[in-house]
Amino acid sequence: MNYFWIVFLCCVFDLVPADDNYVTCGSVIKLMNLKEGVRLHSHDVKYGSGSGQQSVTGMTEADDVNSHWQILAPLKKHCRRGEAIKCGDQIRLKHLTTGCYLHSHLFNAPLSRGNQEISCFGKNDEGDTGDHWALSCETGEWLRGEPVSLKHVDTGKYLATSGQQYGRPISGQKEIVGISSITKAALWKTAEGVYMVLSDDDN
């Protein structure tokens, strides 16, 4: 499906209901942090320190198009569009508007001490294993609205909020980091999105 068409659907319909309650491969979602209430966000603004890659933040506004992420399989792997993501699966999250992938590495977070930088890196399948995230959940399969955590495969850190807030040029947006253990700051749930389902031909 064309990315611009997906963005249009996300903006117009905000949430497309389906026959089941699973989060699936190919779906375009917004992820909301349970502690801060912000949505995982990115934009064409680079970090001024660390890796210098595209920044990833937490955004309070629900309707910002730059908070859409598409769920994809790891590099050199494939998942069927509409197939439920299982607890323990590895995934990539592609930022829909800029085309890069949610990423981490051993750079320090820009604001908070002792945390790891989260960035957006690579385009058009030009990434690396730093784009791989393992889904931690307790329901067998990823259910919409259920708390989950995302563990960075290469470094073992969990995607989280730090409680720190940026100044200009992204004033008011929250710092997103990698942390060592699962706390409420590392719990996320799906919010708005376009959820893919298996077609009859796939069953």
Biggest beta-sheet profile? 7 strands, mixed
Number of discrete domains: 1
Low-confidence stretches: 1-19
Instruction: Name the helicity range.
Output: under 10%
What shape does the CA trace take? globular
The percentage of residues in β strands lies in: 35-45%
CATH architecture: Trefoil
Reading the helices and strands in chain order gives HEEEEEEEEEEEEE
Give me the side-by-side strand order of the main sheet: 1-13-2-5-6-9-10
**N- to C-terminal distance:** 19 Å
- Number-wise, the strands total 13
Q: Kindly state the mean pLDDT as a whole number? A: 90
Instruction: Please write the CATH class name.
Output: Mainly Beta
Alpha-beta content class: mainly beta
Number of helices: 1
User: Rg to the nearest angstrom?
Assistant: 16 Å
Which topology does CATH recognise? Trefoil (Acidic Fibroblast Growth Factor, subunit A)
InterPro entries: MIR_dom_sf, MIR_motif
Signal peptide: 1-18
Protein name: MIR domain-containing protein
Keywords: Repeat, Signal
How is this structure best described in words?
This protein has 203 residues and is mostly beta strands. It has a single domain, classed as Trefoil (Acidic Fibroblast Growth Factor, subunit A) (Trefoil). Helices cover 5% and strands 37% of the residues. It is built from one helix and 13 strands; from the N terminus they run αβββββββββββββ. The protein has one helix at 3-13, and strands at residues 15-16, 28-33, 39-46, 54-59, 69-72, 90-95, 101-108, 116-121, 133-136, 149-152, 158-165, 174-179, 188-194. It has a seven-stranded mixed sheet with strand order 1-13-2-5-6-9-10, with helices on one face. Residues 20-74, 82-138, 139-193 form the MIR domain. It comes from Syphacia muris.
